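tool_log.txt
---
The assistant was asked to compare two proteins side by side. It first ran the structure predictor on the initial sequence, then on the second. Raw inputs and outputs are pasted verbatim so the downstream comparison step can read them without reformatting.
(1)
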Amino acid sequence: MATTADMRNGLIIKLDGSLYSVVEFGQNKTARAAAKVWAKLKGVDNNRSIEHTWNSGDNIFPVRVERRNYQYLYKDDSGFNLMDVNSFEQIVISENLIERADLYKDGQECFVVFNTETEVPMGVELPPSINLLVTYSEPGVKGDTATRATKPATLETGATINVPLFVNEGELIKIDSKTGAYIERVKS
């Protein structure tokens, strides 16, 4: 049995019949009262975001999940089509279970999170960082590099992100897949 001491970011727990992922958590200690553990939770099987508080040492009910390697194939009217890289089995996932759907390109590696009790897919995640090609970007203004100025750039997937002024069309860049933020240029 798990307790609040086992709380960590990314842990998926069952609370009031629904599944939630821990986004952030912390502990409040006061001189007179017992310590409390709080958490910001994001719904896995619903679109709710809530905050919940437990007494320190209370039981929580984690759900065992497994991340499996998949490859993104294409998107159609039924959803996102993915293929298991080991068994070549294909599955279709609805867009509401996809994290950062605008950053997926054909043939890209991703991870499908399964609830091991029910074998139901709970979501799809990209690797921590991904490389994408800049297909359109305005040229930067020469001499405007004293500040951390940025400009919009369109990527090969159709997504638009802000990049530094020195990034040009046709360059490969590394992006943080959680936030969609520019990390660095990729050397070919």
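(2)
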Amino acid sequence: MKSTVKIIAAALVLSMIIIGCKKKEEQPVPKTPMQAPMSTPMQTPMPPHGNTGPKVEKKIVVPEGVKAKWNKVKFIIEDKASKKSSEFTVNTGSELNIPNTNLKIAVGEFLPDFRMDESVITSASDAPNNPAVRVEVFENGKSIFKGWLYSKFPAIHPFEHEKYGLVLKEGIKG
């Protein structure tokens, strides 16, 4: 009986050795497209802020209550060389030729409580909670800036120029 147990034990040990030492067959490596090296620029750059859809032109809606109350804006123009500032009050929907410069400002819509979603830019109320004005600035007849100026957040999308500064001071009720 002892010899039978020894034979079974030896068979088990031998089978474990054979199974444990059996060379594993290599699995085929799945073929993947070759990736471009990191130093190669991307062929198609990603749009900012994860926006992958086509650019949608936002509709600007000025509520009637806002149109009736807010019809002027006040800008501060700074001459960076002389460090002198001037204030100008301008009607919305009009233009301002800035004296002693080659700059002209086309003043668009004023929104006292600027709000924006995927398709609409509007004013949430007629209170000056987030005042903004849409402008286009021309130098020698060429457009050099087009966007919104915010009086409480002048560093958001600011007008940048080597000689002049332009900020929205406030909206004015008319």
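---
observation on (2): Residues 21-27, 29-50 have pLDDT under 50 and may be disordered. The longest helix spans residues 2-21.
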